[in-house]
Request: fold
Amino acid sequence: MQTYSPKSGEALENEEMLLVLQQALTKKRVLIVDRHAPARESVRLMLGTLGVTQVHGAGNSAEVIRQVKANRFDIILSDFILDDGRDGQQLLEELRHAHLIAPGTVYIIVTGERTYTNVVALAELAPDDYLIKPFTADQLQARLVRATYKKHLLRRIYEKIESGDLDEAIAACDRVINQHPAYMYDAYRFKGELLLQLERIEEAEALFRKVLEGRMAPWVQMGLATALRDRGALEEAALLAEQVLASAPDFLAAYDFLAAVQERRGLLENAQEVLQRAAEASPHNTLRQRMVGDIAARNEDLPAAEKAYGKVLERSKGSSLRCVDDFANLARTMAERGNIEASRKLIGELKRELRGDKEAELAALTHESLCLAAEGAPEKARACAEQAIALQQIVEEDFANRGKPLSQRLSVDLAHACYASGLKDEGEKIMRQAVAENHEDQQLIHQASRVFEKTNQPEGNALLEQINHQLNELSNRGQAAARAGDLAGAAELHTQAAEQAPNIRNLIEAANSLYLLMDRRGWDATLAASAHDYLERAQRKDRKHPKVLATRQLAHSVARKYGIDISA
Reply:
């Protein structure tokens, strides 16, 4: 067996470490994903010649999900073509989205020579490497060692990001930049993203401009575009994203970015057109199809929304990415187009597919009520709505105990069912809660406005303004107290706001105010527990939200100041 001798562009600086990693392969747990059992066996035998004995196999995505939940794999080798309508890139998307694999897991896609270019071009969540069929055991070893070596060098970055200590993650990036020039750009990419997450926008912009002097790459340009967007230069950011797409039309993340910027500029039709272009280039991306459906619904382009939501259900079948909202979105759109029969048929499919799921049962009752109301059967509609209200309370309690959020779009649908069946007070109560907890969600606010319009509730928009005013008043008072140096008063006001309306902004502000109070007064276990709870609740809503990440870093900074270890 030959040992790996790296090519000049990918040199491994430490030959002793190379030998260690070659030997370490024997201890790795590997998952082979291929629809053909003989192919899995062939790779297993190759791994055996390398001394790798902990080898598992899976023939489809469902089996992969089951196995990664049961085992922690160091390496996943996935064929590009799977047997359940998905591919290896989609599988990677699903695994990362659901946080089923650790950042340190090596993920390699196996593909044929003829499809390699297309696979690489459309890889948004880039795997660690690609392996071209056919390959030898020596080639397999070379790719595994190379990927493992890179993970080894970047491991401190991964570890600090996972623990939430982003300042230390940046320091780890700097060490890689200074000590391992072969992986300098990997570290620059991490560092730039971390600076953006910490809202250190000027530093991020300077870094990306510096990198552009030595390397013109789409990810660098998009990093700069993000910095421009975050400091309010929306037109300049959009122009840069368009330049990226002109030179690299397969860099699909640029479409998502451009669409979001155009939406922020109020150019909703332009945003929809951009997302539809991206969806055509990447038709198997479930998350993007949802985005197309959402923006089309906001534009009241119901045929396009129905088409996109339909593709979501089609592509997510048998996947952990599928959720109750997928059915509800499509059922709602069908009903809005007047196709009550199709909406009811879809809800029947939901009940069959997710039998025993209380949230699915709630969605079914809600949309059945809406169908009955549309058919002119108000009494039956009201009975269904009343059952749904009772069930919602049960589901909310259950989800709260499990730390799982209930679909707020479904809550707005239930409010709609209440209004449509004469349960106005109940509808207003449900709508008030949903809007208060999600007032920054423009899709949900649009959905609420449409409900008021369709159910002839002229006071509805006034209700939205009232809720927004109340939320902003508490938040503004808390911020004013903080500026005046009254950190205790700020903490009290922000926690009050978070308890009244636990939306992501209020939860983050509550956590921040408590950490800042401890920064001044000293570490307090009770306050720390409350701050951690607010932060965790915010994270469950959006774990990648920049302010969530910045608050996690604040927590680490304050804890470190007083000698407290919160990394576990």
Notes: The first strand starts at residue 29 and ends at 33. Confidence is low (pLDDT under 50) at residues 1-12.
